[in-house]
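Data availability excerpt. The first of two example chains:
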Amino acid sequence: MVINMEAVFEKYPSNVISFIQRKSSLQIFTDGQYILRAGDFNRDVFFVLGGKAKALDYGENGKVVNYAEFVPGTFFGELSSIDGLCRSATVVAVKECKLAVLLEKDFNFLVNNYASFNKIFINKLVEVIRVSNCRISDLSLLGARQRISDELHRLSVTDPENGIVTIHDIPTQEVFAESLGISRETVIRVFKKLTEQGAIKRIAGRKMIIYQL
């Protein structure tokens, strides 16, 4: 099987592509087949040539959580190759997935001896960190949103005539933050998101209408 790596990795320098071609082995995985499993000690690095793969984990309730997708021109598995620890995620193939697989020693040689790829690698790590930070922030916000929503329900009253749910004297953001043990900035962000979603509406004075939380 002949695969044009120059077309797939068009942003890679030619010497990097040549190295990957020489040192890698081709592996093909079918739809739904496991490529990596969390906890494995395999330290190879996988460059996607065709098809697609996805990284997933399992929540406490057993539900599958997809948190990364790998398309042609990207790679995965680099963390274990660098720190020598076990795999942190499970990766499965989506449809037929073609991969160029580099051994740990070859990948580390590539990182340490090809400055152009070292830059690509650093950018990938930065991307991983940024995505992780966003996910941590989102999880934090979800917990804060639930607490704020519960407090808004507690403070609200329902008009028996028209069914409108209202808070007549909404506490300040500072009071909300102190009473719930969260930062004022988090309260601001949650209120902003709830307003944009049409869940709440601030009106004159310190009054708020609750639509749906």
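And the second chain:
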Amino acid sequence: MSWEIDLRIANGIALVGSLTAIVMWLAPVRDVWTAPYSIFKSKSTENVATSFGFVAGTFNCILWNMFASTRLDTMLIPFIVNSAGFLLNVSFVICYFAYGEGKQRREVRNQMAVMLLTTGLAIGGWVHAGDNEVVGYFAAFVNILMLFGPLAAANQVIRQRSSKGMSLLPMLMTLLSATVWCLYGVYIKVIPSIIPNALGVLFGILQLALYGWAKGQDRKLLEQDILDEEFQPVSGRPTSGSLRQRASSLGLHHVVAEGP
């Protein structure tokens, strides 16, 4: 890595990365706050598989801002974006905790404890070394966990053979954001930015592959239910409305339209 960093190019890449990061941070708003099936409106965490991404996202923003605080000449835009990301993720964690049941609330508390310990170690390393470079590596570690977040529900998705709890937009934006920030890290020669985002690209591809497989399972199950409807007694037959509602919740409107 022998090139000289041009701040105009660095800030240009950071601006593109920031735009993708803003959309990435905003992507869960629908699942948490605004959609009819959202946590807030349904008063249930049923349609959000895990809080892990929200908790990791909160502390990812904290650690990256700690790291960026001494590098504002090249990292001012990421600092601003992560400040916004912090506020959004805190709101997601609060909503998930407020409407979660005992198991979900324990999950949040345990995740918060681990992240607080990680942040404490990062601060301790900074104080001990007198340089916050060590914070960058802790931030990279938490960044990896955050980008891995959607795959934390992989076992549930595979076991249930359903995409319920997975959302396409956050996965797409996470992949795009990781790609841009990986390029940014390469250009400004910051290893803690390169490693987690390179892994984030890999995780994003795996997440999309899992999502595509799960959607295929959703379609097969719904098509089978449509076929079974033809052979059930009228009294036990599901209504077209209920099938349409299921198809809508899974994003498979066309399957009912094509069905008998």
